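Methods — Computational structure assignment.
A single polypeptide chain was analysed. Its primary sequence is given first, followed by the predicted tertiary structure written as structure tokens.
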Amino acid sequence: MVRSLWSGATGMLAQQTAVDTISNNIANVNTVGYKTSQIEFKSLLYQELQTKTTTANGDPKPIDSQVGLGVRSSSITTIFRQGAFQEADSNSSFAIGGNGFFAVQLADKNVGYTRNGDFHWATTSNGIELTDSEGNAVLDTKSQPIRFTGEYTTSKITITEDGKFMYPDKDNNPKDMGPQIGLWQFNNAAGLEKQGGSLYLETEASGKPLNEMTNNNLEKSKVVQGYIEMSNVQLADEMVNLIVAQRAYEANSRVITTTDTMMQQANQLKQ
């Protein structure tokens, strides 16, 4: 009966983590570039109820006699399913169709990766620079900040599906401006380390970033100007998962109260 107390407690802790994960998904249902998370569980150790699993004749039993000791959360996996595109008011907003990530230069000189393409043109002393909402420079295919020296009307800058920036000449014909927005993929995107602001950092689990420009083995992503990718959270699914987690939490709580009642009755037998 003591085992059931601990098993019920581990179940409550695991379901609490599940509710935390679901609540974070629901809170970010309208966050640009957010990817939903899914919790996974695994059983804990198993304990033998008999020292020897044999019959009365000494033959091995066909079925073992073990009891589990509870559950724990094994991982919280990010699901990189494509989110819906939503039209944006700015021509510096970009959505990615495919598995690619944008890269931005963070303040600590690390490189962050994101699906949030809500970018802005920042004015500098030498011209303009493409940045995210936090002021981090967006990187090109050579991992360099995207900057243009000279005078440009940002509303006239367009971008092709493969990420090339174009600007009209005097005859209003689009001309390549040189830099190309960088798109990167990972062998294991679920292994990326989550940061705030829909940013991810490279880890050993994710593997090195793969440049779509130089790696011909990758399926190329497409850049869509004037759109942003919304979160891929399915609110109906999250509400169902929340109900399931709540009921599982209640069931594990009932295990503890039932065990307590049984122990109380056992203690009363000697009175």
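Note: The longest strand covers residues 71-78.
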